[in-house]
Structure formats: C-alpha cells, structure tokens
Design a protein that fits this description.
By secondary structure, the protein is of the alpha/beta class. Helix content is about 35%, strand content about 30%. It is built from 8 helices and 11 strands. It has a 6-stranded mixed beta sheet with strand order 2-3-1-4-11-5. The two termini are about 35 Å apart. The protein folds into 2 domains: about 5-90 and about 180-210, Periplasmic binding protein-like II (D-Maltodextrin-Binding Protein, domain 2), CATH 3.40.190.10; about 95-175, Periplasmic binding protein-like II (D-Maltodextrin-Binding Protein, domain 2). It binds adenosine-5'-triphosphate and 1-O-pyrophosphono-5-O-phosphono-alpha-D-ribofuranose. 1-O-pyrophosphono-5-O-phosphono-alpha-D-ribofuranose binds near residues 140, 141, 155, 159 and 162.
Length: about 210
C-alpha cells in the first residue's frame, strides 16, 4: 500500500474532520488533537497528515504535495483552485452573508464592502449588477461598518452572536458552507483505488452521522 498525504486545516475544522475519519474506520492516534507537530505519520494506515492553515489547504493539494485535503467551501469558492471536490463532509456548517448596520442602504456613489473573501464578495455584487470597492481585511471584519470603514461586510455567520453583540444585522445570505474532501487530480488518477476507498468510507460515515 502506498502513503496518502492529507492536508488538514488546523483550528475549528480539525477535530470534526478527525472524528469523521475515525468513524470511517481509520485508526488514528488520540494525541493528534493536542500535538504541535505539523507532519503526523500513521504507518499502520499508511497515512501522512500535514497540518496547515485552513486557507492554505487547497494550495498544498493543487501543487500535489498533498493528495487530499479538507477545506471549507468558503475557501474553495474564494480560491477557485484546480482541485477535485470528492465528498461534502457536512461538518463545520456556517454560511456566508452580507451584513451591516441596521436600516442602512449602501452608499450609492462609492459603496464599500469589507471582507476576508474578496472573490466571493466581488462575484456576489457583480451578479447583482452593483459595482463596489472591496476592502480586504484579515479578521474582525465586523469592525468595518461599526467604525465607518465600509457599508457592508461579507463574512461567515455561524451562531449570529458576533453580529448581534456588535449591533449589526444580516442582509443577504450568499451560500451555505460545509467542509469538503478535495483531491489533487493527478493523485486521484495515480492512487485511484485508495482515494476512492477513502471517499466511499467517508461518505458512508457522513450518512451515519446524519442519522
Ligand atoms: N463561525 C465560524 N467562523 C469562521 N469559520 C467557520 C465558522 N464556522 C465554521 N467555519 C469554517 O471553519 C473555517 C475556518 O476555520 P478557523 O476559524 O479555524 O480558521 P481561520 O479563521 O480561517 O484561520 P485563522 O483564525 O487561523 O487565521 C472556515 O473556512 C469555515 O469553513
Ligand atoms: O456567528 P458567529 O458564531 O458569531 O461566528 C461568526 C464569526 O466567527 C468568525 O470569526 P473568527 O472567530 O474566525 O475570528 P476572525 O474575526 O479573526 O476571523 C467570522 O468571521 C465571524 O466573525
């Protein structure tokens, strides 16, 4: 059997993804959750995990240094990289939405939208026929309308608590987001049997989790 290298996102998604892999029958060490190691090999399963920033997972997979990866649909939509989406893992659910101060309209001369997702935001407003200036931020996006940097934000909503506690309201839902198993297209061809087996087992585990 040959090794499969999987790029896993550190942070929010990691634990749920690991749980799903275990539910799919992979025998993975429990220490993986607390470890600071960035490369973890599991010889008994012929698996190698690389632990990356969520936004970087598709980079490793596109370049083929990882055969597979787990990435949020938000990251995939934003980056449009050449990776194959194999399974909707139905974990880390959230959605992408526009938000802003209550009862406001966008500035009609020079509307500004703050976001960590410039491609998603540009596409959304373009499809509505609205030309906006995108202001790219790296986090705490909700600050932007509060201090007058932007009329709207495009960001992830999960519980809605961040919006609420900062006096913002949601305007439009853009897309539902869950994490996906993605593959490098060449790996998919070369290691087809192993990758298809993993995709099948994960799909089954997803089904069982839903029940
Ligand atoms: N409330 C949420 N906020 C942000 N991301 C969420 C949320 N719920 C689920 N997700 C999913 O988790 C991913 C983000 O994970 P995480 O928050 O660990 O990293 P990050 O914010 O991108 O990175 P970092 O905080 O390390 O810069 C998103 O890509 C999305 O798919
Ligand atoms: O609807 P909620 O449950 O409140 O979750 C949504 C918030 O969580 C994310 O931020 P994150 O915690 O990743 O911090 P960030 O601002 O650094 O991106 C997202 O950008 C929202 O701000």
């Amino acid at each position: 059997m040959e090794y499969l290298t999987i790029a896993m996102p550190k942070g929010r998604i990691f634990e749920e993804a690991l749980e799903l892999l275990k539910a799919a029958g992979y025998d993975l060490p429990n220490e993986m959750e607390d470890s600071r190691k960035l490369i973890v090999e599991v010889p008994s399963e012929q698996l190698r995990f690389i632990l990356a920033k969520p936004m970087d997972v598709p980079v490793y997979v596109e370049h083929g240094v990882a055969d597979l990866g787990v990435a949020g649909k938000d990251v995939l939509l934003e980056q449009q990289r050449s990776v194959m989406e194999l399974v909707d893992l139905q974990i880390s659910y959230c959605y992408m939405a526009t938000a802003g101060l209550p009862d406001t309209v966008m500035n009609d001369v020079a509307p500004r939208v703050a976001t960590k997702y410039p491609t998603i935001a540009t596409t959304f407003f373009k499809e509505k026929g609205e030309q906006v200036e995108i202001i790219e931020l790296n986090g705490s996006i909700e600050l932007a309308p509060m201090i007058g940097l932007a009329d709207r934000i495009v960001d992830i909503v999960s519980t809605g608590r961040t919006l609420k506690e900062n006096g913002l309201v949601e305007y439009e839902k853009i897309a539902d987001i869950t994490s996906r198993l993605v593959a490098n297209p060449v790996s998919y061809r070369v290691k087809q049997a192993r990758i298809r087996d993993m995709a099948k087992r994960l799909q089954q585990a997803v089904g069982e989790m839903q029940r």
